Amino acid sequence: MLLPFRQLAPSLKNARRVIYADMNQFPGSDGVDFFNVLAFRGVFFGSPFAQSNHYRRFNTYSEWTEFKAQEVKEEKYYVKKNCYGQSQRHRHTDLLKKYWDQRLLWDARFPKPTKPSITEVYKWLTKSNTINGKNVKVLKNIGTLTALLICGDLIEADVLSMPLADEWGRLIHSLDMGAKAAMIDLRLTRENASEVELSNAFVSLDLAVRQELNEGEQAAMRYNVVMLEHALCKIKRLISRGINLDIIREEI
Q1: What is the mean pLDDT of residues 206-232?
Q2: Are residues 83 and 185 in the same domain?
Q3: Helices (DSSP H) in the chain: which residue ranges?
Q4: Residues 105 and 44 in one domain
Q5: What is the pLDDT of residue 246?
Q6: What is d(CA 246, CA 252) in angstroms, rounded to the nearest whole number?
Q7: Residue 79 resides in a domain
Q8: pLDDT of 245 above 90
């Protein structure tokens, strides 16, 4: 049986071992855990560094600067600007200082014992402030896709509760990217589907998958709606690369 791939991707596999292994005290002493989450998804993800045995967490900003000085690597070793598809021109290691300065924001917004909903976290991560008439993101380079990925990571790390398919489906509609496009291509929903329509379609798809997989398979895979959304994104990537839809349907 083929096992799921989201949690086994090289960068995320390292992150699970290094920064997500013990998140019981998230966001960590002095916000260090939250800093490392932002650093992983906002800067390091997909880079040679994130995929290497040298990947590590940083407990202070000075640890990072000292590490970088010792490694003597080019910027491209730490940053892959097109890690999520389109190139991100604002993706660079200078963001780490900004993220370090913002490491306490999680605790300020979600003080313990509060356990926020996924939607609350998603909206907060993508928040912008108006400065001199312009919308400026609070967490720079954390866009809608990156925010959803962070939510998924925190769900898998048990920091956030697993959402119902309905809530995750509504976020897929809001994101309006690969998973939604795949559902349209597979004729699971219509192109101009409302939030409710798309969410209902995602709920139905989740139920269909759960009926197809037995309990043992679901347990072995740790199947959940985060995995399903990720699979839809990969299906859309295959479609974009010219793989015939009939072939994809047959393989599914």
Answers
A1: 92
A2: no
A3: 10-18, 32-39, 61-71, 75-78, 95-101, 105-109, 118-125, 144-156, 165-175, 178-185, 195-212, 215-221, 225-240, 245-251
A4: yes
A5: 78
A6: 10
A7: yes
A8: no
